[in-house]
């Protein structure tokens, strides 16, 4: 049996929605270099709907595949619905992940939340914290 | 397909496979039985012991066959600890980047009241003899330092370390699992009291290895039962595998010099090629390393995804990243030589075979370069590095 499902390998080999949105309405970055996975999500939002999403990931196969799958799952969805996305749903959509890899999929859920929170903050006129809020790179 | 993970395990040599097949069919007797096929098995077993002993300049009775390197490490350390305890000596010295077969045995002994000092291995991945000399105490019962490291391939100054131990009257064990069959090892020249070896690292079968213990060192049996291996390890001997171990080791020893020299040339070509990748660094000393070992860190990428994409291109390698090990920490070896987490996650070990060609080396260089730059293309860390938000480490 292979380490990963066909679905994981497909999303890993051909990640969807890779890249950057320069004028994003919300950006979230989670994870840290210490544990080995970092995910950054960029959202474009119109009328409370996610019209575009892009990601960048430093991480293992399961981190890249979960980022890719998560972006597909929220694209075109209302913000409130995207906020409900769980890592379990992402993992299930990938036909499962090895137990010790579940923590990598948690990052996808967290990255999306963090990007939406950034968007909400901007909406309220608060300064964007953007990136780094959850990032601790203590070895530098 | 390029198999570049020979430090993990090797393919059995054709001769070793032949030995194992032939003996499995023809020499099935129990080596402890009186009748002729039992005694024939015993002869084969003792011939294998003599052959293995000769390669490392030991005597046959100093060799105990085990289930591999891990068991040999466990038994060597346990035995020395037992002997030390009898004299009230409960201090052990080792190095920070030993194999877990050694480190975990030592942690267990710590819980049993032993004190362990782990010597630093510095940026070059080498233990300093003077630091060993300083660390030895009145109550030191064992020094255990690996001959060559399994991840970064650095070769320790074993002969000097052994000489210091002799002078201070402390037992010296070396985990030579990565060295035996690849570089010259001589227990007399190198002042070694105990040594562990594993057959599957030198084209022999898996699940077989041996422990050398100099005459007069009493070994503690880890497995109780029959009187096999002179009471040092119970259990009916796996004669076909043990004989195949001897076949493989004799073969390796016969061609060692020429293979080591030729492989080191390929290694250096590979190192030169990979050094061209920006923000990369070789791990461990460039010259004092196994002829087969190349280990790099590439900043801004993670090792597991690198391995998976290399596998798609027919390249089999390994990495010290956390996500390949199932733990959150990257390899203790890379941390021990001072690589920070960010960089240690992006490591790649290529342990090449003797038969690799220049074309294959160039294929490795080209494909590693392509995959690294592809992964950097969507790495948020790489973006921060290239935009100047974070300073490069490498
Ligand atoms: C340095 C070192 N020591 C010990 C071992 C364990 O050997 P074995 O797999 O035969 O138990 C290995 C191999 O993984 C090794 O590389
Ligand atoms: Zn991961």
Short description:
Chain A is α+β, with helices and mostly antiparallel strands and 140 residues long. Chain A has helices at residues 6-13, 61-74, 79-82, 87-93, 102-123; strands at 26-32, 37-46, 49-58.
Structure write-up:
The complex is a heterodimer of chains A (140) and B (394). With 140 residues, chain A is an alpha+beta fold. In chain A, 39% of the residues lie in helices and 19% in strands. Chain A has a single domain, classed as Sufe protein. Chain: A. Chain A has helices at residues 6-13, 61-74, 79-82, 87-93, 102-123, and strands at residues 26-32, 37-46, 49-58. A three-stranded antiparallel beta sheet of chain A has the order 1-2-3. In chain A, a hairpin with a 4-residue loop joins strand 1 and strand 2 (37-46). The longest helix of chain A has 22 residues, at 102-123. Chain B is of the alpha/beta class and 394 residues long. Chain B folds into two domains: 14-254, Type I PLP-dependent aspartate aminotransferase-like (Major domain) (Aspartate Aminotransferase, domain 2, 3-Layer(aba) Sandwich), CATH 3.40.640; 256-387, Alpha-Beta Complex (Aspartate Aminotransferase, domain 1), CATH 3.90.1150. In chain B, 42% of the residues lie in helices and 13% in strands. Chain B is built from 14 helices and twelve strands. Chain B has helices at residues 14-26, 36-55, 69-86, 100-111, 129-135, 158-167, 239-254, 256-274, 303-312, 322-325, 332-336, 341-344, 358-376, 380-386; strands spanning 2-3, 63-66, 91-95, 115-119, 140-144, 171-175, 194-198, 209-213, 280-282, 293-298, 315-316, 347-351. In chain B, the strands form three sheets. Chain B has a seven-stranded mixed beta sheet with strand order 2-8-7-6-5-3-4, with helices on both faces. In chain B, helix 9 packs across helix 13. At the A-B interface, helix 1, strand 2, strand 3 and helix 2 of A face helix 9, helix 10 and helix 14 of B.
